[in-house]
Amino acid sequence: MNQLLFYEKPGCTGNQYQLALLRARGHRPEVRDLLSHAWTAVTLQPFFGDKPVPQWFNPSAPAVKSGAIDITALSARQALNLMLAEPLLICRPLLEYGLLQQSGFVDGPVLKALGIVLDRKRDLNACPMGGDALACEPPA
Q1: Distance from CA of residue 83 to its chain's centroid?
Q2: What is the number of domains present in the chain?
Q3: Which residues pair with 5 in a beta bridge?
Q4: Residue 137 lies in a domain
Q5: Which DSSP state fits 122?
Q6: Are 90 and 103 in contact (CB under 8 A)?
Q7: Is the dihedral of CA 16, 21, 25, 30 positive or negative?
Q8: Residues 102-121: pLDDT tens digits?
Q9: Which of 27, 71, 119, 140 could form an S-S bond across to 22 if both were Cys, CB 3.0 to 4.6 Å?
Q10: Residues 6+ apart with CB under 8 A from 57
Q11: What is the CA angle 137-63-53, rounded to 5?
């Protein structure tokens, strides 16, 4: 059986909801820290598949939310370089199941393979803290 890898931001409330859903459906994901993982452009890019570059980004990341980074003007290479320097920019979670990979808790190849159909009325990819990145920080 394939191992389900779930790359999260430790302390992220949204990621905790997503993990709870996976566990309630009988899956046992191996949770890894997205922010401290040793990413390279080669290991990170496959998670985004054929999504447009702006969808690679976490819309709640402070630099994205404030407009400090114009994610619509970036090439794939520029986006990857920014994400490698600041992993908080990556749309999370990153999911890996066998040879399948995806970013975000949205309809995609990993959730499809797991038999998970998301409720279109509820956005499990959105930040339940209202996009306040500081509110998701793990306790000191």
Answers
A1: 12
A2: 1
A3: 30, 96
A4: no
A5: S
A6: yes
A7: negative
A8: 999 999 999 999 999 887 66
A9: 27
A10: 64, 69, 71, 79, 83, 89, 90, 91
A11: 110
Token code pair at residue 109: 């190849």
The secondary structure of the chain in percent helix, strand, coil, rounded to multiples of 5, reads: 40, 15, 50
- Torsions phi, psi for 131 (to 5 deg): 80, 10
Q: Three-state SS for 60? A: coil
Q: In the structure, what pLDDT confidence band is assigned to residue 2 with cuts at 50, 70 and 90?
A: confident
Q: Tell me how many degrees the CA angle 31-117-18 measures, rounded to the nearest 5.
A: 30
Residues tagged active-site: 12
* C-beta of residue 11 within 8 angstroms of C-beta of residue 36: no
Q: Residue 5: is it exposed, middle or buried by C-beta count within 10 angstroms (0-12/13-18/19+)?
A: middle
Q: How far apart are CA 12 and CA 122, in angstroms?
A: 18
Q: Which domain holds residue 90?
A: 4-125
> Residue 46 maps to which CATH number?
3.40.30.10
Give one word for 29, left, alpha or beta, with left for phi > 0 and alpha for psi -120 to 50. Answer: beta
Q: Does 138 fall in a domain?
A: no
